[in-house]
Amino acid sequence: MAETETLKKVMLKLGTKSWLKLWRNNTGQAWQGQRYNLKAGTRVVDGMGRTIVTEPGDILLRRAHPVNFGLIGSGDIAGIIAPDGKALYIETKYGRYKQTEQQKRFGKMIQDMGGIYIVCKDPELVETQIMDEMRLKNGRNG
Q1: N or C: which terminus of the chain has fewer CB atoms within 10 Å of its end residue's CB?
Q2: Whole-structure pTM value
Q3: Which of 101, 128, 119 shows the shortest CA–CA distance to 6?
């Protein structure tokens, strides 16, 4: 199971809970510009003089520029817990993958502000992890 599979399983497991609203929290970079759809087989010469032959689905962007989205380090899944509207972020990991320093800092900020941040490696345990964190936040240990 890859990390994306872990994420999908967590979304499926929690998606039907009436006390929780979740959404995928993507981060990354995309490119934007004037778009031209190119017919497969079109020949384009790049800035270094190399000929590129387009394939189905290729596009050309003119005056392209990067567009960053999402907050770097934020959890893969974001949500709100009813009835008090507590913030929830879930970082999904698989195998030996570890949190980045940015993810650790984001998680600490969420926890310091009263929200819940968990790292989920096992989709079967995610609900228990959330409940345990809620008990800790509410000052109950059992």
Answers
A1: C
A2: 0.79
A3: 119
d(CA 35, CA 33): 6
What's the per-residue H, E or C state across 18-75? Answer: CCEEEEECCCEEEEEEEEEECCCCCEEECCCCCEEECCCCCEEEEEEEEEEECCCCCC
Encoded tokens for 82: 């009813």
Kindly report, as residue ranges, where domains of CATH 3.40.1350.10 are found in the chain.
Answer: 3-27+70-137
**Hey, what CATH class is 3-27+70-137 in?**
alpha beta
Tell me which amino acid residue 62 is.
Answer: R
Measured between alpha carbons, how far is 45 from 77 in angstroms, rounded to an integer? 41
Token couple for 17: 């809970």
| Side chain identity, residue 16 | T
Model confidence pLDDT, tens digit, residues 93-111 = 988 889 999 999 999 999 9
Q: Which residue has the tokens 């320093």?
A: 101
